[in-house]
């Protein structure tokens, strides 16, 4: 095939199209969606010469492979992984030129979980409510990639890649995930012991985590009250506690309303690391002086 | 009501959850938030998400300052006539009609009359894009969810659960008691707004076709 498009050669475990997300529609029940590691998505876009908000591919756990129908500048970042063009090693974290018809292979991450792939011109999937992001909770936006699927690319940016030729450093996922939280809005639904447990005991990242939430394994949090909380609005980073007592940290595809109490909220700056934490990663929730100020 | 009757709970660094005593008060608060936002009297807020008895303001630069502002508000009661009305034609032949009739103590064919006499209001959306939680049904008609949710409920199905009536915008799993079905397009991303039932809108159901039972 030819033209400004990509053919999916190997979709990987889960590869989706993502941009910054779908804002302003939460009151209609529309999740925000968007890249789980926004800094990585913005960086690969800059490397490819795109505006930071262009749509990219977000891979999960084992990369993907695509064949562009035209020569295109690409950049792979986020979780570090081997990159190959028609079998030959290529750079990670730098602009790479892929000839028309060559296979770009994004390998399994050596650390972290989600790699990001930008193409000059961006992935030109149809916009839904102002965003090209795949929302896996409600099914809005482009479907996850399937083998053989064809994705259009946008016109190449006029200026070409910016002055970002050299490889860039990436901090990498921490060996231990530390999430800074502010208690509330429903901390009073839990016992004092539960609050001490949340911020004092060790948890682990559960393999049941996904784009909707980072699930955890560890000591259960005991409620101080029974009964149901009437549905209320939910935010990114909310630490919701379902009846099993295991905290769930809401990520980009989280539901807009929910009825389980939110014991605390994780700082937005810490959520990219959460999205890169592989199952089994040790996890601690901490309160800091900075999170205690305010109303 | 004044803003002093509203409990303002901080939610992380950039959001505020405003909690009222009941759904009527939170609907009035939501209307006041939207009025002030339209009038340019509200600091920038990215999302305003009403729910059962709360209004979430997300994407706020200074939640503490906003909470102090809200405390000074005079919040008028919800006007009965100031929201648009959406009429939904419904064929009252849902799979759970007989069960609902039994719970209500009426004959199945009476369900349509009781349900369609009520003027509903969209209290909030959730569960799926365009799924509205509609209030207005008198409390004696509340029914529990089905013990076992269905794996697939068709688009347009009208269901009851607790104090709410809802219409499934598209086929999905669901546990609400189904009393009928509408052909109205509840969700269309090409339309603005994409949802037919948005928070605050008043809703009437109009029976069409043969009533079951």
What would your notes on this structure say?
The complex is a heterodimer of chains A (295) and B (213). In chain A, 8% of the residues lie in helices and 27% in strands. Chain A is mainly beta. Chain A has a seven-stranded mixed barrel with strand order 12-19-16-17-14-13-20. Chain A has a six-stranded antiparallel sheet with strand order 7-6-9-4-1-11, with no helix packed on it. In chain A, strand 6 (83-85) and strand 7 (88-90) form a beta hairpin. The relative contact order of chain A is 0.18. Chain B has two domains: 3-71, Gyrase A, domain 2 (2-Layer Sandwich); 85-207, Cyclophilin-like (Cyclophilin, Beta Barrel), CATH 2.40.100. A four-stranded antiparallel sheet of chain B has the order 1-2-4-3. In chain B, strands 5-13-6-7 form a four-stranded mixed sheet. A three-stranded antiparallel sheet of chain B has the order 10-9-12. The mean pLDDT of chain B is 94. Chain B is built from four helices and 13 strands. In chain B, strand 9 and strand 10 form a beta hairpin. The N and C termini of chain B lie far apart (46 Å). Chain B: GO terms for molecular function: ATP binding; hydrolase activity. Chain B: This is Allophanate hydrolase. Chain B: Keywords: ATP-binding, Hydrolase, Nucleotide-binding. Chain B: It comes from Streptomyces solincola.
Sheet with the most strands, sense and barrel status of chain A: 7 strands, mixed, barrel
- Could you say which overall geometry of chain B the principal axes of the C-alpha atoms support? elongated
* Derived structural class of chain B: alpha+beta
CATH topology (level 3) name of the largest domain in chain B: Cyclophilin
CATH class of the largest domain in chain B: Mainly Beta
Total beta strands of chain B: 13
Low-confidence stretches of chain A: 289-295
Tally of individual domains of chain A? 2
Fourth-tier CATH superfamily name of the largest domain in chain B: Cyclophilin-like
Element pattern of chain B in H and E: EEHEEHEHHEEEEEEEE
Largest contact between protein chains?
A-B, 36 and 42 residues
Order of helices and strands of chain A: EEHEEEEEEEEEEHEEEEEEEHE
- Total of helices of chain B: 4
Q: What is the terminal-to-terminal distance of chain A?
A: 59 Å
The total of helices of chain A stands at 3
């Amino acid at each position: 095939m030819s033209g400004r498009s990509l053919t999916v050669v190997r979709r990987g475990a889960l590869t989706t199209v993502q941009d910054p997300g779908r804002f302003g529609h939460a009151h209609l029940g529309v999740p925000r969606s968007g890249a789980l590691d926004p800094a990585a998505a913005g960086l690969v876009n800059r490397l490819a010469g795109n505006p930071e908000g262009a749509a990219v591919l977000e891979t999960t756990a084992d990369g993907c492979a695509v064949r562009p129908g035209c020569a295109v500048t690409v950049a792979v970042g986020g979780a570090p992984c081997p990159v190959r063009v028609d079998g030959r090693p290529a750079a990670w974290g730098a602009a790479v030129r892929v000839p028309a018809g060559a296979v770009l292979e994004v390998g399994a991450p050596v650390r972290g979980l989600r790699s990001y792939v930008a193409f000059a011109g961006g992935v030109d999937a149809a916009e839904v409510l102002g965003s090209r992001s795949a929302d896996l909770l409600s099914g809005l936006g482009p479907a996850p990639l399937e083998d053989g699927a064809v994705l259009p690319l946008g016109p190449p940016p006029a200026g070409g890649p910016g002055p970002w030729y050299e490889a860039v450093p990436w901090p990498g996922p921490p060996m231990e995930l530390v999430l800074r939280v502010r208690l509330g809005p429903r901390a009073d639904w839990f016992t004092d012991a539960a609050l001490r447990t949340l911020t004092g005991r060790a948890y682990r990242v559960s393999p049941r985590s996904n784009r909707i939430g980072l699930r955890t394994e560890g000591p259960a949090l005991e409620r101080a009250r029974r009964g149901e909380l009437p549905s209320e609005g939910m935010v990114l980073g909310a630490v919701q506690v379902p009846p099993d007592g295991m905290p769930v940290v809401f990520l980009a595809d989280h539901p807009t309303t929910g009825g389980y109490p939110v014991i605390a909220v994780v700082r937005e700056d810490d959520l990219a690391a959460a999205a890169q934490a592989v199952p089994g990663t040790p996890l601690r929730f901490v309160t800091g002086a900075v999170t205690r100020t305010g109303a | 009501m004044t803003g002093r009757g509203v409990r303002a709970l901080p939610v992380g660094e950039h959001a505020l959850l405003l909690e009222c005593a009941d759904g009527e008060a939170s609907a009035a608060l939501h209307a006041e938030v939207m009025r002030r936002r339209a009038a340019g009297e509200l600091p920038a807020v990215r999302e305003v998400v009403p729910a059962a008895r709360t209004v979430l303001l997300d994407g706020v630069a200074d939640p503490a300052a906003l909470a102090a502002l809200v405390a000074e508000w005079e919040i008028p009661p919800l006007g009965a006539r100031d929201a648009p009305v959406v009429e939904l034609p419904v064929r009252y032949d849902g799979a759970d009609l007989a069960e609902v009739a039994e719970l209500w103590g009426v004959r199945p064919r009476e369900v349509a009359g009781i349900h369609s006499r009520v003027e509903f209001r969209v209290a909030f959306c959730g569960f799926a894009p365009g799924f509205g939680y509609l209030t207005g049904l008198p409390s004696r008609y509340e029914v529990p969810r089905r013990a076992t949710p269905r794996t697939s409920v068709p688009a347009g199905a009208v269901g009851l659960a607790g104090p709410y009536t809802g219409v499934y915008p598209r086929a999905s799993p669901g546990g609400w008691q189904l009393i009928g079905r509408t052909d109205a397009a509840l969700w269309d991303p090409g339309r603005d707004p994409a949802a037919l039932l948005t928070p605050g809108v008043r809703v009437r159901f109009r029976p069409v076709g043969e009533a079951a039972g």
